[in-house]
């Protein structure tokens, strides 16, 4: 009986060692997965920053229904969005060179409204707006 008890104890110790090894591997895998996710998020933010800082002064406004610009004007729509979402950017005096719908022709088969493209006079204005939008993370 003692030999059988020793054999059972050694099997139990071996099983515990295997379990601890598997638990260690699980911890390593989850840590490496989190590191990969963090790297992906960092790379995505770097790509977004690079794309936003390209020396183009265009901003794209998505989701404004068709025909609203006839009543208010596209520049006024942009100012309302800035005033509503970013109260700290109200009195900055952004200069808008051009505002238009894109693409220029309306496709009746397309269910979504066309985007409004705002061409700013300075890249720094665009960068300030995008920085505020990233800080807020939810712009309506």
From TrEMBL:
Organism, scientific name: Sus scrofa
InterPro entries: L1_RRM_dom, L1_trimer, Transposase_22
Keywords, sorted A to Z: Coiled coil
Family according to the record: Belongs to the transposase 22 family.
A molecular function (GO) term: single-stranded RNA binding
Residue ranges occupied by any L1 transposable element trimerization domain in the UniProt entry: 13-52
Domain L1 transposable element RRM, chain residue ranges per copy: 57-140
One BP annotation, GO: retrotransposition
A single GO cellular-component term on record: ribonucleoprotein complex
Record's protein name: L1 transposable element RRM domain-containing protein
Coiled coil: 5-32
Keyword RNA-binding: no
